[in-house]
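input
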Amino acid sequence: MPLALPSIGVPIDHQDVIDAVVLLVAAAAGFLAAGVIGLLVGLGAGFAFIEMTDELARIDDALTRLARENEALHDRVETLEGTVTELEDAPETADDPDRSDPD
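output
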């Protein structure tokens, strides 16, 4: 005995109900599978982003350290160049016979 939709009078048999249930189950399974796949892709992308930003932070720290070290070396070179200039401009007193040692 076929059922009928009351408002429009369309007959519905048991095969239509079975088809509707199968489609409902297939749609639910598809949504769940797509959700799991999307979750896995999202987690993978998130972990890759975290690793990438961590590596960028390490590179930034290394570059900052190298820049500070470079600046310190430049300061040291300037100091040594100043010392060399002072020594070159200083009068030679080591070979001066008139020089008296305080000892």
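quick obs: The longest strand covers residues 3-4.
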